Amino acid sequence: MTDPSAEARPAETFAEVEDALLSRWPETRLEPSLDRIRAFTELLGDPQTAYPVIHLTGTNGKTSTSRMIDALLRSLNLRTGRFTSPHVEKMSERICVDGEPLSDEEFVRAFNDVAAYTHLVDASEAHPLSFFETVVGMAYSAFADAPVDVAVVEVGMGGSWDATNVVDAQVSVLLPIAVDHAQYLGDSTTAIALEKSGIIKAGGTAILAEQAPEVTEVLIQRATEVGATVAREGSEFGVVHRAPAVGGQTISLQGLRGRYDEIFLPAYGAHQAQNAALALAAVEAFVGEDPLGDEVVREAFAEVSTPGRLEIIRRSPTILLDAAHNPHGARATAVALEDSFTFSPLIGVIGVMGDKDVEGLLEAFEPHLSHLVCTQNSTPRSLSAARLGAAAREVFGEDRVTVLSNLADAIDRAATLAESPETDYAIGSGGVLVTGSVITVGEARALLKGRR
């Protein structure tokens, strides 16, 4: 447990705030209850009731879709707050106002605004506030102080008992649901769907991605029970057409209020087109009856950025970063690679967390990678490069696997393999994909941008 007297003293620097937050229960230590976050937000004056909310859950695609929703809302001249997790490089990325992360000074202020109350919750509850619960409280308070016109909130994990779920969302977005975090959420898609359906609220609108029939049944049952309106991808809205383009893709979308043709989206893959359709439907449901207008949609999607999601971070050779960390996400990434790129060879650099479906992840990537460099990130949760390498040899074979525990060395080795004159491939045609974990991708991003 944290030292209450230490938390009562105002922090002066970003580093002090990081230390204070990281000293709390980590995001991976869960006790399924909303008691602590409710006690916390009540002490803060229930800031999450000061603005309408669009709430998102699902196995993959939450952050990209959140960023798209944010861009659409800002194109309508609405001031937005956006809460996403985890961060790619810097903790303050989790809390954005008007599309921009809080500055270091704003992040320190947001922490100090709530810090005096954290020890009160710690003392009154059976367990202390976690890192995630504290950052959620910071976000909700910062959005009320801004103030924002609407908040876009991504769950951390699950739905019903996720700390973000003290909001009463007007619009709930349920992205594709697959098995992930099975030790916390259940080992079947229906069990996970039941947990995630908890973000659907009475009188709201549920925007449902195309799902397995049994998952859709669970979600619609929840919506019926609470009296929420349902809009389904493939029925009320969806992707009409998409084609790869330089720097992304061109898409045509059928929304809830109108059709929008030949929209450029600077993101790769059919899954990102699907995310765009969900974002569009969510915003149309939020604003009401009228279509958004072609220029609004065109302008919003043109400015969307998706860091760490098939992001080109360097050329010669091309190095892509993608935070796929489960088989469902890896399959979507693999399809997008085949759809939008022509690397020969494509070399993978992978570092994963120890609690993930490593074999499923490797099997999803195996047909698409010529060689795999197994590595690890700097966190204690990371699976060791040696153990990952042993699993990878079972899937890829001995000759297609290299093990280097240092991430920088792994990236350098992959870049060399991608352009090696010793291969039969044309020099300059190879590429590198760094993947397996948001943390691995974040650390690679910092390295490749020349930062420490």
Using brief descriptors, characterize the structure shown.
single chain, 452 residues, alpha/beta, UDP-N-acetylmuramoyl-L-alanine:D-glutamate ligase, Protein-Tyrosine Phosphatase, Chain A, 2 domains, 6-stranded mixed beta sheet, 16 helices, 17 strands, 40% helix, 18% strand, globular, disordered N terminus
What does this structure look like?
With 452 residues, the protein is of the alpha/beta class. It has 2 domains: 299 residues, 3-Layer(aba) Sandwich (UDP-N-acetylmuramoyl-L-alanine:D-glutamate ligase); 140 residues, Protein-Tyrosine Phosphatase, Chain A (Alpha-Beta Complex), CATH 3.90.190. It contains 16 helices and 17 strands. The strands form 3 sheets. An 8-stranded mixed β-sheet has the order 4-3-2-5-1-6-7-8, sandwiched between helices. A 6-stranded mixed β-sheet has the order 12-13-17-14-15-16. Helix 3 packs across helix 5 and helix 12 packs parallel to helix 13. It is globular. It starts with a helix and ends with a helix. The N terminus is likely disordered.
